[in-house]
Design brief:
Shape: globular
Oligomer: single chain
Order of helices and strands: EHEHHEHEEHHHEEHEH
Mean pLDDT: 93
Radius of gyration: 16 Å
Strand order of the largest sheet: 2-1-3-4-7-8
Length: about 230
C-alpha cells in the first residue's frame, strides 16, 4: 500500500516522520511532502500543488492522509492526483463540506489572527497559544526541538481565501481519526456521513508521542474504508 502523509501548513513534515517510519517498517511505501516553503508564500493553491507533486508513487492502493490544517485541502489534493486515491483519512483535521467552500480557519478565529499579525505575517503556530504549548504537545525533547525548528511563519493572507470543494469528492472512501477534543465536531460530522471513525484520545501532536498506536489505528481505518486493504 502507498501512503502520502500531508502535514498541516502550520507545521512541518517532522510531525509525520515517526508514523512514516512505522509504516515503512510494516512494508508500505510512504511519502511525506514538505509544504513549509510554499506555505510561507501565502497561497493555499501552491500548498495543494506541492502536496500532489510529492505524492507517493508506485503500485498498490494509494491513501492520502491529512493532519490538522491539511484537512480542508485534502479534496483538492486528491483531485490533483491521478489516478484518484483509494481513500482519504483525516487525522485531527477539519472536515470540508460536501460542496461549496471550506474555510482554512473559522471566520471568528481569523479576527484573532488579524490581531497577532505583524506587517501581514503571523508568528509561528506554537506562539499563538503561549510559550509552553510545544512542551505540552510533544514529550521527547529532541523530537520537540526538531518539530519546532521547522515551524513556518505564514502570511495572514494564507487564511483569507476559502478553498473550493471539488464536486463529488465524497465519493472517495474516507475515514476519520480523532486525537484531541477540539476536533470532536469534525469526528461527529465524519460519523454522520457513515465514514469509519476511531478515537486515540490524547494530544493534537500525538503523531510524535504514540506513533505505533496511531499507525495501527490508521491501518484499521484504511481497512474499514477499503475492505480489500490489509490491516497490517
Amino acid at each position: 500500500m502507498r501512503f502520502t502523509l500531508v502535514h498541516s501548513p502550520l507545521v512541518g513534515p517532522v510531525t509525520w516522520s515517526l508514523v512514516a517510519t512505522r509504516l515503512r517498517e510494516l512494508g508500505h511505501d510512504v511519502a511525506v511532502p514538505s509544504l513549509v516553503a510554499v506555505a510561507t508564500r501565502g497561497r493555499w493553491q501552491q500548498v495543494v500543488e506541492a502536496a500532489a507533486a510529492g505524492a507517493c508513487e508506485g503500485t498498490g492502493a494509494h491513501v492520502v492522509v491529512g493532519h490538522s490544517g491539511a484537512g480542508p485541502l485534502l479534496p483538492m489534493i486528491a483531485k490533483r492526483i491521478s489516478p484518484t486515491p483509494a481513500a482519504l483519512v483525516f487525522v485531527d483535521a477539519g472536515v470540508p463540506p460536501a460542496s461549496g467552500t471550506a474555510d482554512l480557519v473559522p471566520p471568528a478565529f481569523f479576527d484573532h489572527l488579524l490581531g497577532l499579525s505583524v506587517d501581514g505575517r503571523l508568528p509561528r503556530w506554537s506562539d499563538w497559544f503561549g510559550d509552553d504549548v510545544m512542551s505540552d504537545l510533544v514529550q521527547d525533547p529532541e523530537v520537540r526541538s526538531a518539530a519546532a525548528a521547522e515551524l513556518p511563519q505564514l502570511p495572514l493572507s494564507y487564511f483569507a481565501e476559502a478553498v473550493p470543494v471539488p464536486k463529488g469528492w465524497t465519493h472517495t472512501p474516507c475515514a476519520y481519526l480523532l486525537l484531541s477534543d477540539p476536533y470532536g465536531a469534525d469526528l461527529a460530522a465524519a460519523a454522520e456521513r457513515g465514514w469509519p471513525v476511531a478515537v486515540e484520545a490524547g494530544k493534537h501532536l500525538d503523531l510524535l508521542n504514540r506513533p505505533e498506536a496511531i499507525t495501527a489505528t490508521l491501518l484499521e481505518l484504511v481497512a474499514a474504508a477499503i475492505p480489500a486493504a490489509p490491516a497490517t
